[in-house]
Every structure is written in structure tokens, then in C-alpha cells.
Amino acid sequence: MARRVFTSFHYVPDNWRASQVRNMGKIEGNSVVSANQWEEVTKGGNKAIEKWIDDNMSGKSCVIVLVGENTAGRKWIKYEIEKAWNEGRGVLGIHIHNLKNSIGNQANKGRNPFEDFSVNGKNLSSIVKCYNPPFTTSTYVYDYIKENIENWIEEAIDIRNKY
Questions:
Q1: In 3D, which of 24, 127, 118, 37 has the Cα closest to residue 66?
Q2: Which residues contact 14 (CB under 8 A, 6 or more apart)?
Q3: Rounded to an integer, what distance in angstroms lies between the CA atom of residue 150 and that of residue 163?
């Protein structure tokens, strides 16, 4: 049975890559938001964005941060990571820079977003796993993620349960 997860990603550059991961049939999660829908949410300001995140993260056992070139350090990505960890959800990252976007381009590898957090004096990046598929060909990256994502989710939940 697929776990219910929340996917966190930098919308504009990575929504195509994120859709590939979300459509693998391995996870259940928040519905895909169109650019128009996201624009409506963001028009409501910070409180509306927080509410949207809170509502969509509710009932999820894990948060997957899909790490693109500029994901780390973004305000809402940080909010989602902190909220997930503080509420006891499993958390993991997957580098998606080598998945092709809608026009067939890959991106540069982004920084690990968990480096920005500490838990009991320990860097979160030493606790939470951030997977970097060992391929540069987009189809191989896709297959690697699809083959492993369910195990990564279970491992992330197990790790979180230890803290």
C-alpha cells in the first residue's frame, strides 16, 4: 500500500520533475496544484500559504523534499521541513536535478536543504537522508527513484520514530 506523503519542491523550476515522481504510482499525496491554483493561494499572503501547507500536510506520514538546483534555503521549503519534523513525520530528500523538465533540460545539483536545521545540537542532514540517484541519464534516474522510493519512505519514518 502506498504511503500518504506530502511533496515539497520549488514550484516554478521543478514542477515538471516533481510531477514525474508524484505520478510513479508509489505514493499517495496532496493533489497536484496547477500554476493558476498556486497563484490564487499565494495571492492570499503568508497566512494563506501556511494554511494551504498545513491542510495538505495533515494526515501524511512522510514529507519528501524533491531537491532541485535552488530548493535549499527557500522560505516555504524550510517551513515544510520544520513543520514535518516537529510534528513527527518522516522526512527525506531526493535530488531531482537529473530528471528532465518539460523541455528536456536537466539542472545543476542543489544544496542539501537539511543542512539549514539542527536537532539537539546535531545537523539535520546527518539524521535525515537525502538521496542522489547515481545516474545522469534521466530515464535511469526515474527508474532508480521509482524502484527505491517506497523503501526510502519507510526508512524515513523509522528514523523519525527514533528521535
A1: 24
A2: 66, 68, 71, 96, 101
A3: 21
pTM: 0.94
Q: What is the mean pLDDT of residues 109-130?
A: 97
Give the largest CA-CA distance in the chain.
43
Number of other residues whose CB lies within 10 A of the CB of residue 107: 18
Cα dist. 86→29, 90, 102, 160 in Å?
A: 19, 10, 34, 10
Q: Report in angstroms the alpha-carbon separations of 71 from 67, 111, 120, 143.
A: 6, 8, 24, 22
Distance of CA 142 to the CA centre of its chain: 15
Distance from CA of residue 151 to its chain's centroid?
Answer: 15
